[in-house]
Amino acid sequence: MKKMKMLYMLCIVLFWTTISSAEMMYIKNIMEVPLRTGKGTEYRIIAMMKSGDSVEIIEQDADWSMVKSLNGKEGWTATRYLTSEKPKEVAYETIKASYDQLQADKTQLSTTHETLQNENKRIGEELTITKKQLEEISLQYNELKKNSAEYMQLKKENDELKATLSKQHQDIGYLQTNVTKKEYMWFLSGAGVLLLGILLGYNARQNKRRSSLY
Question: Is 44 helix (H, G, I), strand (E, B) or coil?
């Protein structure tokens, strides 16, 4: 059983190795080449291959080659119709296709380059506008900062003035209270002196009257 599995695996490996290493050849510069069911012109033609068609070599000898065509058909064709070199028509078409692709790539690159230039110009203009806006914002910020500093200074001075004014009001109230008390005391003192003078004068007159009676 194990030998059968190993043989099966070996067959698969050989099969894929054969496929991967298959040689590719081309039909020579002949209008059309027949693909037959066997080695010889007596065998039936199953397909016609054109000049420049690539074929996969399956088996080959000096006279006949078993090949696989582009559409997947397998058959035999004369070895003399095959060549390993690309026919000029195929080489020309390949080069032309490459050239056309390069031209298309060039056009695409030119379009992309123009698009990038326009995008770069647009970004440059937006950058200039943004830079200008940033400068304006910076000026506004500095002006606001300056005004804020002036406002804080004015507020500080206003608070100091309020404190000074409050202190002055307190001092004025204190002075008014003390002055009123002092004026009251002076008034009482003056009134007392005046009353004492009147009493003394009255007493002196009474003494004079008494002296005149004696």
Answer: coil
8 A C-beta contact, residue 67 and residue 55 = yes
Token digits of residue 179: 């002055």
Q: What is the spatial distance between Cα 35 and Cα 46, in angstroms, rounded to a whole number? A: 6
Q: Which domain holds residue 71?
A: 2-84
Whichever domain contains 29, its CATH number is 2.30.30.40
Q: Is the pLDDT of residue 133 over 80?
A: yes
What mean pLDDT do residues 128-137 have? 86
**C-alpha 62 chain-centroid distance:** 68
Is there a single domain that holds both residue 103 and residue 27? no
Single out the residue of 18, 91, 81 nearest to residue 55, CA to CA: 81
At residue 10, the pLDDT reads 47
User: How far, in Å, CA of 52 to CA of 28, rounded?
Assistant: 6
Nearest-angstrom CA–CA distance, 23 and 62? 16
Phi and psi angles of residue 52, each rounded to the nearest 5 degrees, phi first: 95, -10
Question: Can you give the pLDDT at residue 181?
Answer: 60
Q: Choose among 125, 27, 20: nearest CA to 81.
A: 27
Which amino acid would we find at residue 123? I
